[in-house]
Amino acid sequence: MVHIRSSELTDSGIERIPRVVGTRAGLPLLDNGRSLEVANVIWCTGFRLDFSWIHLPIFADDGYPIHTSGRVLSARGLYFLGLPFQQSMSSTLIGGVGRDAKLIAKWIVEFPKAA
Fold first, then answer.
1. pLDDT in tens, 79-93
2. What residues contact 85, with CB distance under 8 A and at least 6 apart?
3. Where in the sequence is the domain holding 24, given as residue range(s)?
4. Same domain assignment for residues 49 and 95
5. What CA–CA distances, in Å, run from 33 to 12, 16, 45, 85, 110?
6. What are phi and psi of 54, to 5 degrees?
7. What residues contact 114, with CB distance under 8 A and at least 6 apart?
8. Helix (H) or strand (E) holding 58
């Protein structure tokens, strides 16, 4: 197992932020009232699926996001992680989510930046 220190995250430019509680003008809205200008969003589902804060036309009639292995093709820069059967039966498990996260990270790096 690889151990990463908090200082290594900070040094690489990663900012820890408060909880996302909604959106404002299409941008993530934080618990402290701040909005974030972001190029990508990875919605890690946790143990309960809740898409109520996402107000985009990306859902099928059953309320489930339309995606390909976690990438929402109709919404540039939106990704999901931890969805049931995202790539396989283990996608919701600690042992399987890493493979899905690696694929999403690859897509983010390869995807051209917005002009």
1. 988 888 888 887 777
2. 91
3. 1-38
4. yes
5. 25, 15, 22, 34, 32
6. -90, 110
7. 39, 76, 77
8. none
pTM over 0.90: no
Whether residue 52 is found in the same domain as residue 71: yes
DSSP tag of 27:
E
Mean pLDDT (10-residue bins), the chain, 115 residues: 76 82 86 88 69 88 92 89 82 78 86 57
Q: Are residues 34 and 56 in the same domain?
A: no
| Distance between CA atoms of residues 20 and 17, nearest Å | 8
**Torsion region of 82: left, alpha or beta (phi above 0 gives left; psi -120 to 50 gives alpha):** left
User: Which tokens in the block code for residue 61?
Assistant: 């009639």
Q: How far apart are the C-alpha atoms of 87 and 106, rounded to whole Å?
A: 15
Phi, psi of 10 (to 5 degrees): -60, -45
